[in-house]
TrEMBL record:
The lineage of its organism: Bacteria, Bacillati, Bacillota, Bacilli, Bacillales. Keywords: ATP-binding, Nucleotide-binding. InterPro entries: ATP-grasp, YheC/D. Residues 372-448 form the ATP-grasp domain. PROSITE patterns: ATP_GRASP. This is ATP-grasp domain-containing protein.
Length: 459
């Protein structure tokens, strides 16, 4: 396999001809060849080769070629020689999301800004990159009516073949479990299109994946899915406090911090629409009745987790969001870290529940002083170890993970949650914007790796 960088141009000739500059002919070992197969995404077509005298590496596509394989635009792109007579233009990268049809400049709601950033950076890396929704797929024609970004930064719709890789950023946990989306994912996989970040994790998924792995199970607090009332009571007596949270929840919604103090009773701390709530109960039975009254049958989808006494700043617990990525060499790396400080009286450190965002350096300096770098390195090594373990036990492609990590008051590192589609709120911090850009670049580099559009030097 060889990989060459070139400039693609369009000509108006109707024939199925590619005009190749001398330098590109030499680079591709095309001298003497009269025909090749040209490919974009899943589309492939035979083409006549005609050399032209022009300095630099240039490829001119006649209209017959451009229209047949639906090349979306001219410009700098890669040519990959996958077989002796086949040359692939690309990569063609599809980003799966969802949004409101006909919503003008914000077709993907609050995600539009991030998706535009992804498309801008992808174009800089010489990729054909577009966003699409499940509604945009035509399975009969094997095409997608995707959203590309034009020169002025607006979306433009173009029909392209099925891509070389799909990055899944569907935003809805509920939609992903629908029969249509399950079928969509499986149909792309049957066509051998790499599809990474398969779906959201449930909390119980991660605990089951890691519970029998001796290398990483020690980092996961004791946890049980769908606990009985007896298990909840036993956990409270064993650990004094626990977290009781919905398996498929996010943003801290529906989470309880339950505490047992032998001489004072049972306490439940949670958040409702009015703010943080703290209730006291004389016995466990009355505590459990309250939760049953609030949630009914949905309590069957809850997880109970051992409470961990985290390090604190101003008497408020601190944990850390590690934004992990596969890089262009298929290795897990830490790209961004945000420290989250819980709000007064809050069950969690989530920003929407009154938490605040700090840089990890500031948080660790306040907690550990001169030893902050040592603790940072310990957390980073643990995060990479956990990411590798999740990938090993997970049966689908992963390229990105968000890990919620904490340090207890004995300096033990813990992992509380793993997210297959982590939010990007930590990158809103002024001092973490460079990490936000690096996150986007790692997504694209992993796409290049999966499509084999990377040179041996990683470029």
């Amino acid at each position: 396999m060889s990989l060459t960088y070139c400039n693609v141009h369009f000509t108006q000739q109707p024939d199925k001809v590619v005009y190749v500059s001398n330098a590109l002919m030499k680079s591709l070992n095309l001298t003497g060849k009269r025909s090749v197969h040209l490919r974009l995404g899943a589309d492939r077509i035979p083409a006549v080769v005609k050399p032209i005298k022009k300095a630099g590496k240039h490829l001119y596509l006649a209209n017959g070629i451009r229209n047949a394989i639906r090349v979306p635009k001219s410009g700098s792109i890669f040519l990959r020689n996958s077989q002796s007579d086949e040359f692939q233009i690309g990569p063609l990268i599809g980003v799966l999301s969802d949004g409101s049809a006909g919503s003008g400049s914000q077709p993907f709601s609050s995600r539009t800004g991030f998706l535009k950033q992804l498309l801008r950076e992808g174009s800089k890396k010489s990729s054909y990159i577009f966003v699409f929704t499940p509604r945009d797929v035509n399975w009969q024609q094997e095409t997608i009516h995707g959203y590309f970004l034009n020169e002025v930064g607006s979306f433009t719709r173009k029909k392209v073949p099925f891509p070389d890789v799909i990055y899944n950023r569907l935003p809805s946990r509920r939609a992903e479990t629908s029969a249509n989306i399950i079928q969509l994912r499986e149909r792309f996989i049957r066509k051998h299109i790499p599809f990474f970040n398969w779906s959201f994790f449930n909390k119980s998924d991660i605990y089951h994946l890691l519970e029998d792995d001796p290398e990483v199970s020690r980092y996961v607090p004791e946890s049980y899915m769908n606990p009985t009332s007896e298990q909840i009571k036993d956990m409270l007596e064993k650990h004094q406090f626990v977290y009781y949270k919905p398996s498929g929840g996010s943003l801290g919604k529906g989470i309880y911090r339950l505490t047992y103090l032998p001489k004072r009773g049972y306490f439940a701390r949670y958040r409702n629409s009015s703010g943080n709530v703290l209730l006291r109960f004389k016995n466990f039975a009355s505590l459990y009745r309250m939760m049953q009254a609030r949630h009914g049958p949905s309590l069957r989808n809850y997880v109970i987790q051992q409470g961990i006494r985290l390090i604190e700043i101003d008497n408020c617990p601190i944990d850390f969001r590690f934004h992990m990525h596969k890089n262009g060499n298929n290795q897990w790396v830490v790209v961004g870290i945000g420290a989250k400080k819980a709000g007064k009286g809050s069950v969690t450190t989530h920003l929407k529940n009154g938490g605040s965002l700090l840089t990890p350096e500031l948080a660790l300096n306040l907690a550990f002083g001169d030893r902050s770098e040592e603790l940072m390195e310990k957390m980073k090594q643990t995060a990479v170890t956990i990411a590798k373990a999740i990938e090993f036990h997970h049966k689908h492609l992963l390229g990105e993970l968000g890990l919620d990590v904490g340090i207890d008051q004995n300096e033990q590192v813990w992992m509380f949650e793993a997210n297959a589609k982590p939010g990007r709120s930590i990158f809103q911090h002024p001092q973490l914007r460079a990490e936000g850009k690096a996150s986007v670049e790692h997504i694209l580099d992993h796409c290049l790796y999966l499509t084999k559009f990377r040179g041996r030097d990683g470029s």
